[in-house]
Amino acid sequence: MTKRIGILTSGGDCAGLNATIRAVALRARHGYGWTTVGLRSGTLGLLERPVEAVELDPDRLDAALARQGGTFLGSTNRGDPFAFPMPDGSKKDRSGEMVAGLKGLALDGLIGVGGDGSLDILRRLLAPSKVPFIGVPKTIDNDVANTERAIGYSTAVAVATEALDRLHPTGASHERVMVLEVMGRDAGHIAIAAGIAGAADVVLIPEVPWHLKVVVAHIDALRAAGRTSALVVVAEAAGQSDDPAEPDSDAPAHGVGDWLARRLSKATGAEARATVLGHVQRGAMPTAEDRLLAATFGVRAVDLLAEGKADRMVAWWNRQVIDVPLAKVVGRSRTVDKDGALVRTARALGICLGDKA
Ligand SMILES: Nc1ncnc2c1ncn2[C@@H]1O[C@H](COP(=O)(O)OP(=O)(O)OP(=O)(O)O)[C@@H](O)[C@H]1O
Ligand SMILES: O=P(O)(O)OC[C@H]1O[C@](O)(CO)[C@@H](O)[C@@H]1O
Ligand SMILES: [Mg+2]
């Protein structure tokens, strides 16, 4: 039977979303003869009347899409359907309106490409609609539970690594400590991976409690050994987990990069500069790895709908695409394992994580 499935992208954008949309539309048409409808602006588009949706003809989706960052369908990380911010400042449950908008599209299935927050919201939103839902994990933060990889992470790590490659020569030329603040929301995945790949001297992540005095001692030791510059990577959330018992525990929840550069300069006497990488990590062309993930996840998501499955998420595990119940994904977050391979590797390379000298 010919089916009509929908796809939407939700949460912060990242590289690889367009490649995912294209893979879904191609698989649906050429694998099953189905039509794919792209829903615009994530959940927000479901409040428009008519609902913002466009039929996707896969043969008209240029292959160049696989290379483009962002999402041509648009996305949102604002406007919780269950507590929607209203102009007068109040919050309103608008999930019923969204479900009504979705039902009007007469879909036989929906694929939602999102991070932990979006997948949770979409799962709850779709439950009363009875529309079969399959989730595809994407987020530069790589913090979605039960998948080793989310679309967009590889690209963000590549961008952060390239930033370190660029900070190294300028830092060395001016004999400075260069601090790079990277994204990751509450997790340090981008920081630890880019820190290793970009040969940083210090990596600070929220999962490993760190102390300014340990970082200062490490930089002092490097300088005593003849090094004139240093590279420091700090995850945006690293300030929140500094030990409250320590005198230097005032690392702020926001702006930890600037704070750290000022403190390091004062304590070591070296000049320091901070770079906040920000949304540059999200907006890049996807790496080959992210394009592959997008393709394999997109195809598998359609196949799951064809198999009559629902309430599941495609996932990457042990070098394979698998699917897991969404119930085992939502409400959890996958942070960096502080005893895991990357942390051990960083330590073995002499990278200071701020917890021991
Ligand atoms: N579809 C959505 N509608 C409204 N708010 C959303 C939506 N998706 C996420 N949010 C909100 O955006 C914020 C970011 O959440 P979260 O990090 O969990 O997003 P995500 O979907 O995981 O995507 P990403 O982490 O890549 O931005 C949270 O406050 C969450 O409630
Ligand atoms: O685009 P916004 O709303 O500034 O959100 C930024 C956040 O989104 C992410 O880029 C992805 O979740 C986080 O790393 C970051 O904290
Ligand atoms: Mg998230």
TrEMBL record:
<comment type="function">
    <text>Catalyzes the phosphorylation of D-fructose 6-phosphate to fructose 1,6-bisphosphate by ATP, the first committing step of glycolysis.</text>
</comment>
<dbReference type="GO" id="GO:0042802">
    <property type="term" value="F:identical protein binding"/>
</dbReference>
<keyword id="KW-0324">Glycolysis</keyword>
<feature type="active site" description="Proton acceptor">
    <location>
        <position position="141"/>
    </location>
</feature>
<dbReference type="GO" id="GO:0016208">
    <property type="term" value="F:AMP binding"/>
</dbReference>
<feature type="binding site" description="in other chain">
    <location>
        <begin position="183"/>
        <end position="185"/>
    </location>
    <ligand>
        <name>substrate</name>
    </ligand>
</feature>
<dbReference type="GO" id="GO:0048029">
    <property type="term" value="F:monosaccharide binding"/>
</dbReference>
<dbReference type="GO" id="GO:0005945">
    <property type="term" value="C:6-phosphofructokinase complex"/>
</dbReference>
<dbReference type="GO" id="GO:0005524">
    <property type="term" value="F:ATP binding"/>
</dbReference>
<keyword id="KW-0067">ATP-binding</keyword>
<feature type="binding site" description="in other chain">
    <location>
        <position position="236"/>
    </location>
    <ligand>
        <name>substrate</name>
    </ligand>
</feature>
<keyword id="KW-0547">Nucleotide-binding</keyword>
<dbReference type="InterPro" id="IPR012829">
    <property type="entry name" value="Phosphofructokinase_III"/>
</dbReference>
<protein>
    <recommendedName>
        <fullName>ATP-dependent 6-phosphofructokinase</fullName>
        <ecNumber>2.7.1.11</ecNumber>
    </recommendedName>
</protein>
<dbReference type="GO" id="GO:0030388">
    <property type="term" value="P:fructose 1,6-bisphosphate metabolic process"/>
</dbReference>
<keyword id="KW-0460">Magnesium</keyword>
<dbReference type="GO" id="GO:0070095">
    <property type="term" value="F:fructose-6-phosphate binding"/>
</dbReference>
<dbReference type="GO" id="GO:0047334">
    <property type="term" value="F:diphosphate-fructose-6-phosphate 1-phosphotransferase activity"/>
</dbReference>
<feature type="binding site" description="in other chain">
    <location>
        <begin position="139"/>
        <end position="141"/>
    </location>
    <ligand>
        <name>substrate</name>
    </ligand>
</feature>
<dbReference type="GO" id="GO:0046872">
    <property type="term" value="F:metal ion binding"/>
</dbReference>
<dbReference type="InterPro" id="IPR035966">
    <property type="entry name" value="PKF_sf"/>
</dbReference>
<feature type="binding site">
    <location>
        <begin position="78"/>
        <end position="79"/>
    </location>
    <ligand>
        <name>ATP</name>
    </ligand>
</feature>
<keyword id="KW-0963">Cytoplasm</keyword>
<dbReference type="InterPro" id="IPR000023">
    <property type="entry name" value="Phosphofructokinase_dom"/>
</dbReference>
<feature type="site" description="Important for substrate specificity; cannot use PPi as phosphoryl donor">
    <location>
        <position position="117"/>
    </location>
</feature>
<feature type="binding site">
    <location>
        <begin position="115"/>
        <end position="118"/>
    </location>
    <ligand>
        <name>ATP</name>
    </ligand>
</feature>
<feature type="binding site">
    <location>
        <position position="116"/>
    </location>
    <ligand>
        <name>Mg(2+)</name>
    </ligand>
</feature>
<keyword id="KW-0479">Metal-binding</keyword>
<dbReference type="Pfam" id="PF00365">
    <property type="entry name" value="PFK"/>
</dbReference>
<keyword id="KW-0418">Kinase</keyword>
<feature type="binding site">
    <location>
        <position position="12"/>
    </location>
    <ligand>
        <name>ATP</name>
    </ligand>
</feature>
<dbReference type="InterPro" id="IPR022953">
    <property type="entry name" value="ATP_PFK"/>
</dbReference>
<comment type="pathway">
    <text>Carbohydrate degradation; glycolysis; D-glyceraldehyde 3-phosphate and glycerone phosphate from D-glucose: step 3/4.</text>
</comment>
<comment type="subunit">
    <text>Homodimer or homotetramer.</text>
</comment>
<feature type="binding site" description="in other chain">
    <location>
        <begin position="279"/>
        <end position="282"/>
    </location>
    <ligand>
        <name>substrate</name>
    </ligand>
</feature>
<dbReference type="InterPro" id="IPR012003">
    <property type="entry name" value="ATP_PFK_prok-type"/>
</dbReference>
<feature type="domain" description="Phosphofructokinase">
    <location>
        <begin position="4"/>
        <end position="305"/>
    </location>
</feature>
<dbReference type="GO" id="GO:0006002">
    <property type="term" value="P:fructose 6-phosphate metabolic process"/>
</dbReference>
<feature type="binding site">
    <location>
        <position position="176"/>
    </location>
    <ligand>
        <name>substrate</name>
    </ligand>
</feature>
<dbReference type="GO" id="GO:0061621">
    <property type="term" value="P:canonical glycolysis"/>
</dbReference>
<dbReference type="GO" id="GO:0003872">
    <property type="term" value="F:6-phosphofructokinase activity"/>
</dbReference>
<comment type="similarity">
    <text>Belongs to the phosphofructokinase type A (PFKA) family. Mixed-substrate PFK group III subfamily.</text>
</comment>
